[in-house]
Fold ABC transporter ATP-binding protein.
Amino acid sequence: MIEVKNLVKRYGDHTAVDHLSFEIEKGKIYGFLGPNGAGKSTTMNMITGYIASTEGTVVIDGHDILEEPEEAKKCIGYLPEMPPLYFDMTVLEYLKFVADLKKIPKAKKASMIEEIMDMVKITDMKNRLIKNLSKGYRQRVGIAQAVLGYPEVIILDEPTVGLDPKQINEIRELIKGLKKKHTVILSSHILSEVSAICDYVLIISHGKLVASDTPENLGKLAAGSNNLNLLVKGQKDTIRAALESVESVKEVTVKKDTKSTEEGVYSVTVGTEENTDVREKVFYSMVNADCPILEMQSKKISLEEIFLELTESEKKDKNPEKKNSGKPFFKTAADAENYLNEKDSGESEAEENGSDEEKEEE
Protein backbone atom coordinates (compact mmCIF):
# COMPACT_ATOMS: atom_id res chain seq x y z
CA MET A 1 0.00 0.00 0.00
CA ILE A 2 2.76 2.45 1.04
CA GLU A 3 6.44 1.88 0.38
CA VAL A 4 9.01 4.20 1.95
CA LYS A 5 12.61 3.78 0.77
CA ASN A 6 15.70 5.52 2.19
CA LEU A 7 13.73 8.61 3.19
CA VAL A 8 15.94 11.52 4.29
CA LYS A 9 15.08 15.06 5.40
CA ARG A 10 17.81 17.55 6.25
CA TYR A 11 17.49 21.11 7.52
CA GLY A 12 20.97 22.54 7.02
CA ASP A 13 23.32 20.44 9.15
CA HIS A 14 20.43 18.83 11.06
CA THR A 15 19.11 15.47 9.84
CA ALA A 16 15.50 15.10 10.96
CA VAL A 17 14.88 11.81 9.13
CA ASP A 18 17.81 9.51 8.43
CA HIS A 19 17.43 6.88 5.65
CA LEU A 20 14.07 5.60 6.85
CA SER A 21 12.58 2.54 5.08
CA PHE A 22 9.39 0.59 5.79
CA GLU A 23 6.25 -0.80 4.13
CA ILE A 24 2.60 -0.38 5.07
CA GLU A 25 0.17 -3.18 4.20
CA LYS A 26 -3.50 -2.73 3.48
CA GLY A 27 -6.22 -3.05 6.14
CA LYS A 28 -4.13 -2.62 9.32
CA ILE A 29 -3.53 0.04 11.94
CA TYR A 30 0.14 0.99 12.18
CA GLY A 31 1.64 2.77 15.16
CA PHE A 32 4.46 5.17 14.43
CA LEU A 33 6.06 5.50 17.84
CA GLY A 34 8.88 7.69 19.10
CA PRO A 35 9.85 10.39 21.60
CA ASN A 36 9.22 14.06 20.90
CA GLY A 37 11.62 15.28 18.20
CA ALA A 38 12.20 11.78 16.81
CA GLY A 39 11.08 12.77 13.31
CA LYS A 40 7.55 11.33 13.32
CA SER A 41 5.71 14.44 12.14
CA THR A 42 8.39 15.18 9.54
CA THR A 43 7.96 11.67 8.15
CA MET A 44 4.17 12.05 8.10
CA ASN A 45 4.51 15.35 6.24
CA MET A 46 6.76 13.76 3.63
CA ILE A 47 4.44 10.78 3.14
CA THR A 48 1.50 13.14 2.56
CA GLY A 49 3.53 15.38 0.22
CA TYR A 50 3.20 18.39 2.51
CA ILE A 51 6.99 18.78 2.45
CA ALA A 52 9.53 17.36 0.00
CA SER A 53 12.15 14.83 1.04
CA THR A 54 15.88 15.53 0.65
CA GLU A 55 16.44 11.96 -0.54
CA GLY A 56 14.44 8.77 -0.96
CA THR A 57 11.01 7.90 -2.30
CA VAL A 58 7.44 7.46 -1.04
CA VAL A 59 5.15 5.35 -3.23
CA ILE A 60 1.44 5.21 -2.36
CA ASP A 61 -0.64 2.58 -4.14
CA GLY A 62 1.83 2.67 -7.04
CA HIS A 63 2.05 6.49 -7.24
CA ASP A 64 5.22 8.37 -6.31
CA ILE A 65 4.28 11.28 -4.03
CA LEU A 66 6.68 13.66 -5.84
CA GLU A 67 6.18 12.50 -9.43
CA GLU A 68 2.40 11.93 -9.26
CA PRO A 69 1.32 14.09 -6.31
CA GLU A 70 -2.36 14.44 -7.23
CA GLU A 71 -2.93 10.71 -7.76
CA ALA A 72 -0.97 9.82 -4.63
CA LYS A 73 -2.78 12.37 -2.44
CA LYS A 74 -6.17 11.05 -3.53
CA CYS A 75 -5.28 7.90 -1.61
CA ILE A 76 -4.56 9.79 1.64
CA GLY A 77 -6.62 11.43 4.36
CA TYR A 78 -4.47 13.42 6.79
CA LEU A 79 -5.04 14.81 10.26
CA PRO A 80 -2.03 16.93 11.33
CA GLU A 81 -1.20 17.42 15.00
CA MET A 82 -2.95 20.80 14.78
CA PRO A 83 -6.22 20.13 12.87
CA PRO A 84 -6.62 22.49 9.86
CA LEU A 85 -9.93 24.01 10.99
CA TYR A 86 -11.59 27.34 10.20
CA PHE A 87 -13.02 28.45 13.53
CA ASP A 88 -15.55 30.92 12.10
CA MET A 89 -17.27 28.19 10.07
CA THR A 90 -19.89 25.79 11.35
CA VAL A 91 -19.05 22.10 11.27
CA LEU A 92 -21.32 21.54 8.26
CA GLU A 93 -19.94 24.53 6.36
CA TYR A 94 -16.40 23.36 6.95
CA LEU A 95 -17.06 19.79 5.79
CA LYS A 96 -18.79 21.09 2.63
CA PHE A 97 -15.73 23.27 1.99
CA VAL A 98 -13.37 20.29 2.42
CA ALA A 99 -15.58 18.16 0.16
CA ASP A 100 -15.26 20.80 -2.58
CA LEU A 101 -11.48 20.89 -2.14
CA LYS A 102 -11.37 17.11 -2.55
CA LYS A 103 -13.55 17.37 -5.69
CA ILE A 104 -16.21 15.07 -4.33
CA PRO A 105 -19.11 14.89 -6.85
CA LYS A 106 -22.12 17.03 -5.87
CA ALA A 107 -24.43 14.04 -6.13
CA LYS A 108 -22.48 12.22 -3.42
CA LYS A 109 -21.40 15.17 -1.25
CA ALA A 110 -24.46 15.62 1.00
CA SER A 111 -24.94 11.91 1.76
CA MET A 112 -21.20 11.36 2.34
CA ILE A 113 -20.95 14.29 4.78
CA GLU A 114 -24.02 13.05 6.67
CA GLU A 115 -22.64 9.51 6.84
CA ILE A 116 -19.23 10.66 8.10
CA MET A 117 -20.74 13.01 10.70
CA ASP A 118 -22.73 10.04 12.05
CA MET A 119 -19.60 7.88 12.06
CA VAL A 120 -17.52 10.35 14.09
CA LYS A 121 -20.55 11.38 16.18
CA ILE A 122 -20.68 15.11 15.40
CA THR A 123 -24.13 15.27 13.78
CA ASP A 124 -25.55 17.12 16.80
CA MET A 125 -22.81 19.75 16.42
CA LYS A 126 -23.18 20.37 12.67
CA ASN A 127 -24.66 23.89 13.05
CA ARG A 128 -22.28 25.04 15.79
CA LEU A 129 -19.27 27.24 15.13
CA ILE A 130 -16.02 25.26 15.35
CA LYS A 131 -14.52 27.85 17.72
CA ASN A 132 -17.25 26.99 20.25
CA LEU A 133 -16.49 23.26 20.25
CA SER A 134 -14.44 21.44 22.87
CA LYS A 135 -11.01 20.14 21.88
CA GLY A 136 -12.38 16.60 21.67
CA TYR A 137 -15.06 17.61 19.18
CA ARG A 138 -12.53 19.61 17.16
CA GLN A 139 -10.44 16.45 16.86
CA ARG A 140 -13.54 14.61 15.63
CA VAL A 141 -14.10 17.30 13.00
CA GLY A 142 -10.44 16.93 12.00
CA ILE A 143 -10.85 13.17 11.62
CA ALA A 144 -14.05 13.75 9.61
CA GLN A 145 -12.21 15.93 7.09
CA ALA A 146 -9.50 13.26 6.79
CA VAL A 147 -12.08 10.54 6.09
CA LEU A 148 -14.06 12.59 3.55
CA GLY A 149 -13.78 11.00 0.13
CA TYR A 150 -13.01 7.65 1.75
CA PRO A 151 -9.28 7.56 0.94
CA GLU A 152 -7.60 4.19 1.34
CA VAL A 153 -5.03 5.51 3.85
CA ILE A 154 -5.81 7.63 6.92
CA ILE A 155 -2.78 9.28 8.59
CA LEU A 156 -3.31 10.66 12.10
CA ASP A 157 -0.55 12.68 13.78
CA GLU A 158 -0.91 12.69 17.59
CA PRO A 159 -4.74 12.50 17.42
CA THR A 160 -5.30 12.42 21.21
CA VAL A 161 -2.79 15.03 22.34
CA GLY A 162 -4.29 17.44 24.91
CA LEU A 163 -7.51 15.45 25.40
CA ASP A 164 -8.97 14.30 28.72
CA PRO A 165 -9.20 10.54 29.49
CA LYS A 166 -12.84 10.27 28.36
CA GLN A 167 -12.12 12.03 25.07
CA ILE A 168 -9.01 9.86 24.53
CA ASN A 169 -11.06 6.66 24.88
CA GLU A 170 -13.71 7.98 22.48
CA ILE A 171 -11.12 8.91 19.83
CA ARG A 172 -9.39 5.54 20.22
CA GLU A 173 -12.67 3.70 19.63
CA LEU A 174 -13.27 5.88 16.60
CA ILE A 175 -9.83 5.04 15.18
CA LYS A 176 -10.43 1.31 15.71
CA GLY A 177 -13.63 1.65 13.69
CA LEU A 178 -11.71 3.17 10.76
CA LYS A 179 -9.84 -0.11 10.30
CA LYS A 180 -12.93 -1.71 8.75
CA LYS A 181 -12.55 0.33 5.54
CA HIS A 182 -9.14 2.02 5.73
CA THR A 183 -5.46 1.49 6.41
CA VAL A 184 -4.52 3.72 9.35
CA ILE A 185 -1.13 5.15 10.32
CA LEU A 186 -1.15 6.55 13.84
CA SER A 187 1.75 8.72 14.98
CA SER A 188 2.18 8.95 18.74
CA HIS A 189 4.64 9.10 21.64
CA ILE A 190 2.08 7.50 24.01
CA LEU A 191 2.92 3.81 24.42
CA SER A 192 -0.42 2.78 25.91
CA GLU A 193 -2.23 4.29 22.95
CA VAL A 194 -0.17 2.38 20.41
CA SER A 195 -0.53 -0.88 22.37
CA ALA A 196 -4.31 -0.46 22.63
CA ILE A 197 -5.01 0.39 18.99
CA CYS A 198 -2.32 -0.81 16.60
CA ASP A 199 -1.73 -4.07 14.73
CA TYR A 200 1.91 -3.24 14.02
CA VAL A 201 4.43 -0.93 15.67
CA LEU A 202 7.32 1.04 14.16
CA ILE A 203 9.65 2.66 16.71
CA ILE A 204 11.65 5.65 15.49
CA SER A 205 14.43 7.51 17.28
CA HIS A 206 16.52 10.39 15.94
CA GLY A 207 15.06 9.86 12.49
CA LYS A 208 15.99 6.16 12.33
CA LEU A 209 13.86 3.05 12.59
CA VAL A 210 15.14 1.13 15.64
CA ALA A 211 12.43 -1.57 15.98
CA SER A 212 9.57 -2.98 13.95
CA ASP A 213 7.14 -5.68 15.10
CA THR A 214 3.60 -6.51 16.21
CA PRO A 215 2.45 -5.46 19.71
CA GLU A 216 2.13 -9.17 20.55
CA ASN A 217 5.77 -9.85 19.71
CA LEU A 218 6.89 -6.76 21.58
CA GLY A 219 4.82 -8.08 24.47
CA LYS A 220 6.65 -11.40 24.20
CA LEU A 221 9.91 -9.48 24.37
CA ALA A 222 8.76 -8.00 27.67
CA ALA A 223 7.63 -11.39 28.98
CA GLY A 224 10.77 -13.11 27.67
CA SER A 225 13.07 -11.01 29.82
CA ASN A 226 11.55 -12.09 33.11
CA ASN A 227 13.42 -11.14 36.24
CA LEU A 228 12.84 -12.32 39.77
CA ASN A 229 14.23 -9.93 42.38
CA LEU A 230 15.03 -11.33 45.82
CA LEU A 231 16.39 -10.14 49.13
CA VAL A 232 18.09 -13.17 50.74
CA LYS A 233 20.02 -13.73 53.96
CA GLY A 234 22.87 -16.23 53.85
CA GLN A 235 26.25 -16.96 52.30
CA LYS A 236 26.82 -15.51 48.84
CA ASP A 237 28.22 -18.68 47.28
CA THR A 238 25.50 -20.83 48.86
CA ILE A 239 22.75 -18.57 47.51
CA ARG A 240 24.23 -18.59 44.02
CA ALA A 241 24.73 -22.37 43.90
CA ALA A 242 21.20 -23.08 45.14
CA LEU A 243 19.58 -20.78 42.60
CA GLU A 244 21.69 -21.96 39.67
CA SER A 245 20.50 -25.51 40.34
CA VAL A 246 16.86 -24.50 39.80
CA GLU A 247 15.39 -25.61 36.48
CA SER A 248 14.56 -22.78 34.00
CA VAL A 249 16.92 -20.30 35.71
CA LYS A 250 19.17 -18.74 33.06
CA GLU A 251 21.39 -16.46 35.14
CA VAL A 252 21.89 -15.35 38.73
CA THR A 253 23.36 -12.08 40.01
CA VAL A 254 24.16 -11.79 43.72
CA LYS A 255 25.44 -8.59 45.31
CA LYS A 256 25.51 -7.13 48.79
CA ASP A 257 22.39 -5.17 49.69
CA THR A 258 23.55 -1.66 50.56
CA LYS A 259 20.23 -0.66 52.14
CA SER A 260 20.13 -3.43 54.73
CA THR A 261 21.62 -2.91 58.21
CA GLU A 262 21.92 -6.67 58.76
CA GLU A 263 25.02 -8.67 57.89
CA GLY A 264 24.81 -11.29 55.15
CA VAL A 265 21.84 -9.83 53.28
CA TYR A 266 22.12 -9.94 49.50
CA SER A 267 20.16 -8.46 46.64
CA VAL A 268 19.61 -11.20 44.05
CA THR A 269 18.38 -11.01 40.47
CA VAL A 270 17.27 -14.27 38.84
CA GLY A 271 16.82 -14.34 35.06
CA THR A 272 14.38 -17.00 33.88
CA GLU A 273 13.29 -18.59 30.63
CA GLU A 274 10.42 -17.11 28.66
CA ASN A 275 6.90 -17.44 30.17
CA THR A 276 8.24 -19.40 33.16
CA ASP A 277 7.25 -18.92 36.80
CA VAL A 278 10.00 -20.25 39.09
CA ARG A 279 8.93 -18.60 42.35
CA GLU A 280 7.85 -21.83 44.04
CA LYS A 281 11.03 -23.69 43.01
CA VAL A 282 13.17 -20.76 44.17
CA PHE A 283 11.38 -20.72 47.51
CA TYR A 284 12.04 -24.41 48.21
CA SER A 285 15.60 -24.10 46.94
CA MET A 286 16.30 -21.33 49.47
CA VAL A 287 14.62 -23.31 52.26
CA ASN A 288 16.83 -26.33 51.54
CA ALA A 289 19.90 -24.08 51.47
CA ASP A 290 18.90 -22.57 54.84
CA CYS A 291 18.84 -19.08 53.26
CA PRO A 292 15.66 -17.20 54.28
CA ILE A 293 14.00 -15.02 51.64
CA LEU A 294 13.23 -11.59 53.08
CA GLU A 295 11.61 -10.23 49.89
CA MET A 296 10.55 -11.66 46.53
CA GLN A 297 9.27 -9.65 43.59
CA SER A 298 8.56 -10.86 40.06
CA LYS A 299 9.39 -8.24 37.46
CA LYS A 300 8.89 -8.13 33.71
CA ILE A 301 10.47 -5.62 31.40
CA SER A 302 7.63 -3.44 30.19
CA LEU A 303 7.06 -2.05 26.71
CA GLU A 304 7.97 1.34 28.17
CA GLU A 305 11.36 0.04 29.32
CA ILE A 306 12.01 -1.59 25.94
CA PHE A 307 11.10 1.66 24.23
CA LEU A 308 13.40 3.70 26.48
CA GLU A 309 16.23 1.19 26.08
CA LEU A 310 16.01 1.26 22.28
CA THR A 311 15.70 5.03 21.97
CA GLU A 312 18.42 5.70 24.56
CA SER A 313 20.73 3.25 22.78
CA GLU A 314 20.18 5.14 19.55
CA LYS A 315 20.96 8.40 21.37
CA LYS A 316 24.25 7.03 22.66
CA ASP A 317 25.17 5.94 19.14
CA LYS A 318 24.91 9.60 18.11
CA ASN A 319 28.07 10.25 20.14
CA PRO A 320 30.75 11.36 17.61
CA GLU A 321 33.27 9.00 19.19
CA LYS A 322 30.88 6.10 18.46
CA LYS A 323 29.64 7.33 15.12
CA ASN A 324 30.65 4.12 13.38
CA SER A 325 29.52 1.81 16.15
CA GLY A 326 27.20 0.03 13.70
CA LYS A 327 24.34 -0.78 16.08
CA PRO A 328 22.02 -3.02 14.06
CA PHE A 329 18.41 -2.21 13.20
CA PHE A 330 16.06 -4.50 15.13
CA LYS A 331 13.79 -5.92 12.44
CA THR A 332 11.96 -8.11 14.96
CA ALA A 333 11.43 -8.40 18.70
CA ALA A 334 13.77 -11.39 18.76
CA ASP A 335 16.64 -9.25 17.46
CA ALA A 336 15.97 -6.64 20.11
CA GLU A 337 15.71 -9.33 22.80
CA ASN A 338 19.15 -10.69 21.97
CA TYR A 339 20.60 -7.19 22.09
CA LEU A 340 18.99 -6.36 25.45
CA ASN A 341 19.89 -9.70 27.02
CA GLU A 342 23.54 -9.38 25.99
CA LYS A 343 23.64 -5.80 27.28
CA ASP A 344 21.98 -6.70 30.60
CA SER A 345 24.28 -9.70 31.03
CA GLY A 346 27.35 -7.50 30.50
CA GLU A 347 26.15 -4.87 32.95
CA SER A 348 25.27 -7.49 35.59
CA GLU A 349 28.73 -9.04 35.30
CA ALA A 350 30.37 -5.64 35.61
CA GLU A 351 28.33 -4.82 38.71
CA GLU A 352 29.16 -8.17 40.28
CA ASN A 353 32.89 -7.80 39.62
CA GLY A 354 32.76 -4.30 41.03
CA SER A 355 31.03 -5.60 44.15
CA ASP A 356 33.69 -8.29 44.66
CA GLU A 357 36.48 -5.76 44.28
CA GLU A 358 34.86 -3.48 46.86
CA LYS A 359 34.61 -6.42 49.27
CA GLU A 360 38.31 -7.24 48.84
CA GLU A 361 39.25 -3.62 49.53
CA GLU A 362 37.19 -3.70 52.72
About this structure: The longest strand covers residues 14-24. Residues 221-303+336-361 form a domain with the Alpha-Beta Plaits fold (CATH 3.30.70.260). Confidence is low (pLDDT under 50) at residues 320-329, 358-362.
